[in-house]
Amino acid sequence: MWQRFAPALPANPWNWISVWRRNFLVWRKVALASILGNLAEPMSSLFGLGFGLGMIIGGVEGTSYISFLAAGMVAASAMVSATFETIYAAYARMQTNCTWDAVLCTPLTLGDIVLGEVAWAASKALLAGTAITIVAAGLGYAEWSSIPYALPAIALTGVTFASLAMVVSALAPSHDYFIFYQSLILTPMMYLSGTIFPMSQLPGSFQRIAALLPLTHSVDLIRPAMLGRPIESVGLHVGALFIYAALPFLIAAALLRQRLMR
Amino acid sequence: MSTAAVDLFEVSKSYNDRVVVDALSFTVSPGECFGLLGPNGAGKSTLARLILGVASPDAGKICVLGEPVPTHARLARRGIGVVPQFDNLDLQLTVRENLLVFGRYFAMSAAEVKAVTPSLLEFARLENKADARVGQLSGGMKRRLTLARALINDPQLLVLDEPTTGLDPHGRHLIWERLRALLARGKTILLTTHFMEEAERLCDRLCVLEHGRKIAEGRPHALIEQQIGCQVIEIYGGNPHELLPLVRPQVQRAEVSGETLFCYVTDPEQVRVRLADRTDLRLLQRPPNLEDVFLRLTGREMKD
């Protein structure tokens, strides 16, 4: 049993780095376009909603609406970046370009590849989240001193959503199926998890569901950090995100083994 | 532990109740070029995947470079170079970067890859293309880069899955010449192909496959001598089924495949005399080859 599953796990703690570096080398050639493309949407949401709705709403939870929203946008953009990198780019490397097939002929295992891809997607999430944090801090919507606390939370958010998206990639017969994950899972989660408005606005039953969602835990870590407030229940949120990262990783690895190593 | 480069014993593999490899055994000795010859769907690519440990057999034992596969496939793969059936190079990267990326998978440092890159590019005749993007290379150049990439870890064993499929004759001959150079350096090659000419030119020994079963094994010329052992006349231009009774007394054996009548004869002149008045026919006399062996063993041509 163990021997059957071993190829789906990372062979050692460093093999994944060569997969990450391959993706970095390719990305570096289109870095500027990639950064601009990834930031345009969260930035326009931040300013559009922040200024527009901010006028009407005024303050939320003791801060300006745009400051409240900035933290939500950081968490949401980390989620979206990690997800899209996994379901579109990594999926193409697996399915269309057969990049993974080439790597499977080397001493790397499938687990090394999956870990490298998850780490890469998380890196892109970290980049997107950090860029928004810096812009927000530069405009006075977040504390500069909070950035060192926000970065690990953004990175963990990236790992979590990359792992979850890897399960979707492992199951999807073609990329046409990804729209279901986006519209049925990610978009509702964004509204439920307190990114755009406080969770306390939701009906009670929805609040209980929302409390279980991974993005809620991300927001609960990132928002207090960015607003320079004490973070409550750090262990709970980090632990929950860790579980949401580790379990899907193992499930994805097992599913991908079924799919690619038949 | 086996001293063979590749050792398969009673290996079977099925996909959804379809038997792809059926209790197959063969051994590849170090330094030889061993061919797996068969039509599409004979199980050649599945065998390559089994040998690399990318797929697991349902039954049987596989040992590659002294390592049991798939359990220790990772160790075995350190000493293997692979040319897959379809190119999977990184098209956005340059030739040089492709080698760098692949070297890292074998735990090579950038300096180590840099040190071997010139000789690999020279081997692949890509010296002038080092900084070209792979997407801009011709099919033959991509194939040669794939071969150079397979050599990055200085492998003992090369697994080549249809290495010249899709290449023009010039590109094909260049690859063959490069593979012979590798054999001269003492590399072991396991080659899958459905090109008779490729198998005859390169392989020391080969295994002819049909539906995942071995139907013949041996040296190419010994197989041809054993199974055919005489001249071949291909006749086309008429209805082969009508022609068959006409020439039957003059031939050792005859096979109809498609619109061609294959006559196996010790004295070709007799057939020519017999058909002298049939100006509508075209006769092609040639020495026997592996295609004839396959036709004899299976009753059909290997060509798709």
TrEMBL record, chain A:
Main location: membrane
Alphabetically ordered keywords of this record: Cell inner membrane, Cell membrane, Membrane, Nodulation, Transmembrane, Transmembrane helix, Transport
Residue ranges of the TM segments: 30-59, 65-91, 125-142, 149-172, 178-197, 234-256
Molecular function as annotated in GO: ABC-type transporter activity
Cellular component terms (Gene Ontology): ATP-binding cassette (ABC) transporter complex
Domain ABC transmembrane type-2 as annotated: residue spans: 33-259
The protein's name in its UniProt record: Nodulation protein J
UniProtKB/TrEMBL annotation, chain B:
Family of the protein in this entry: Belongs to the ABC transporter superfamily.
Name this protein carries in UniProt: Nodulation factor ABC transporter ATP-binding protein NodI
Pfam families reported for this sequence: ABC_tran (PF00005)
Superkingdom classification of source: Bacteria
Assigned GO CC terms: plasma membrane
Keywords attached to this entry: ATP-binding, Cell inner membrane, Cell membrane, Membrane, Nodulation, Nucleotide-binding, Translocase, Transport
Coiled coil: none
Gene of this entry: nodI
Primary localisation category: membrane
GO molecular function annotations of the record: ATP binding; ATP hydrolysis activity; transmembrane transporter activity
CDD domains: ABC_subfamily_A
Gene3D superfamilies named in the record: P-loop containing nucleotide triphosphate hydrolases
Species of provenance: Bradyrhizobium rifense
Positions of the ABC transporter domain: 6-236
Role description: Involved in beta-(1-->2)glucan export. Transmembrane domains (TMD) form a pore in the inner membrane and the ATP-binding domain (NBD) is responsible for energy generation.
Subcellular location: Cell membrane
